[in-house]
Design brief:
Blueprint: H1 10-14, H2 20-24, H3 33-46, H4 49-64, E1 75-84, E2 93-96, E3 101-112, E4 118-125, H5 130-145, E5 152-155, H6 162-170, E6 174-176, E7 199-204, E8 207-212, E9 219-221, E10 226-228
Parallel strand pairs: 1-5, 5-6
Antiparallel strand pairs: 1-3, 2-3, 3-4, 7-8, 9-10
Length: 229
């Protein structure tokens, strides 16, 4: 924290158990919060965070027993967690959705497996965007494993961009993303192929709970001034 001229979070100075971490690791001496400060600074000086992340990702995959043989195992979910920083130093800001505020923060992007286990993470400034992190994060995992394993990428509407769709398709990947609530009013907003009908998608207790319908939609790439299907 001193590296970024940050103030120590108040509850760490007052409520944080002085002997707690020391007890966990079998140390008689207190294991205080400033020890973590020193550790993080040393890690940054060694410039080995990426290497550690790759090795950790490989170990996670071994522990969870992922073989990448099924489509489920080749499906990954990319998500972002906002970490607010309390500092007087000028650092990039971003929108913290839960607080509904623009705050100084770091964004930590996670690549999760199909069970929701976090496999790989990437910390970025608060003004970063998922579209700029999506492909480097997938590439980092596949580089660590030495093979292409991500067949389907699931991400929220922050990754909604025509060029992202095009690059995904070019790389031979499929993707699932989400649109804003009430962005479309009905089926009439889509181009539904002739003869296409709703079909069962999910069941519960033998009853159909969700239906699915394949449809097309033209998306506008405003930067390139092109319309793509």
């Amino acid at each position: 924290m001193p590296l970024f001229r940050m103030e120590r979070i108040w509850h760490f100075k007052t409520v944080y158990p002085r002997e707690g971490l020391g007890f966990l690791i079998g140390r008689k001496m207190p294991y205080k919060y400033h020890t973590m400060d020193n550790f993080l600074r040393e890690i940054s000086r060694l410039n080995m965070a990426e290497l550690l992340s790759k090795n950790l990702a490989k170990r996670y995959i071994e522990i969870f027993g992922i073989e990448f043989e099924t489509l489920d195992e080749q499906t990954f979910y990319i998500d972002c967690h906002d970490k607010v920083t309390w500092t007087h130093f000028n650092i990039p800001k971003g929108k913290h959705v839960t607080r509904n505020q623009i705050l100084k923060l770091l964004k930590v992007y996670f690549l999760n497996d199909f069970h929701g286990h976090p496999i790989l993470s990437l910390t970025q400034p608060g003004d970063s965007h998922l579209t700029n992190v999506l492909f480097p994060l997938m590439h980092q995992l596949e580089q660590a494993l030495g093979k292409k394993v991500i067949k389907i990428a699931v991400f929220d509407r922050e990754g909604l961009a025509v060029w992202v769709f095009q690059k995904m398709t070019k790389q031979g990947r499929r993707f699932v993303t989400f649109l804003r609530d009430n962005q479309y009013e009905s089926e009439e907003d889509f181009d539904i192929p002739t003869g296409e009908r709703y079909r069962p998608f999910r069941y519960r207790d033998g009853k159909v709970t969700q239906l699915i319908l394949d449809a097309h939609k033209n998306l506008k790439d405003y930067k390139a001034n092109q319309t793509n299907l």
